[in-house]
Specification:
The protein has nine helices and no strands. The chain is mostly helical. The model has no long low-confidence stretch (mean pLDDT about 80).
């Protein structure tokens, strides 16, 4: 069991951290979430309850990250080097800093809404979009990892983007302006 766990950990550690970082926008939090994902995997795999390992790990990471973001949405952390200067009277006005932070939060929430809907619509589309556009993986590498041709991946991305435009036109335009 332990050898199998170590193999799974080595294979998927980086992608689980990247997936968590995609949602939390924080590397340290993503690493903590990944640790929890693998702790749960160790428990569930011991009971024989995990069939699709990669899918289970990524889904668990996504769910834990969603929960973290939801639970910590109201927290506002200041970067002392940038936002702290504004609060101390340097740089932009406090109103400008507030509205920029608000705008960034709205864009992130809108992106989260769109990606959640895309995941419900078609999980393969979601995987392709997050790997290519959010994690900025090369398309050929993503196509290979998904077991499809490069042209098939491009077609999948095109269909996913059109679905997003059809169902979330206003939100999509808002994100593109950001």
């Amino acid at each position: 069991m332990e050898t199998e766990f170590n193999t799974v950990f080595e294979l998927y550690q980086n992608i689980v951290v990247q997936a968590a970082a995609l949602y939390t926008r924080n590397q340290h939090t993503a690493e903590d979430i990944a640790q929890e994902v693998f702790r749960r995997y160790y428990i569930y795999a011991g009971c024989g309850e995990v069939e699709n390992v990669k899918g289970w790990l990524l889904t668990t990471a996504r769910n834990l990250a969603y929960n973290y973001v939801r639970d910590h949405r109201k927290e506002v952390l200041l970067d002392v080097n940038t936002e702290g200067e504004t609060l101390l009277g340097y740089g932009d006005s406090p109103e400008k800093a507030f509205f920029e932070k608000l705008w960034t939060t709205e864009v992130l929430e809108t992106t989260d809404t769109i990606l959640s809907a895309l995941a419900r619509k078609n999980e393969k589309w979601f995987d392709a979009v997050t790997l290519v556009y959010c994690m900025e993986k090369p398309q050929r590498e993503v196509a290979e990892s998904m077991g499809i041709s490069y042209e098939g991946l491009q077609s999948m991305l095109y269909r996913a983007k059109n679905w997003i435009k059809e169902n979330y036109r206003e939100e999509f335009d808002c994100i593109n302006k950001a």
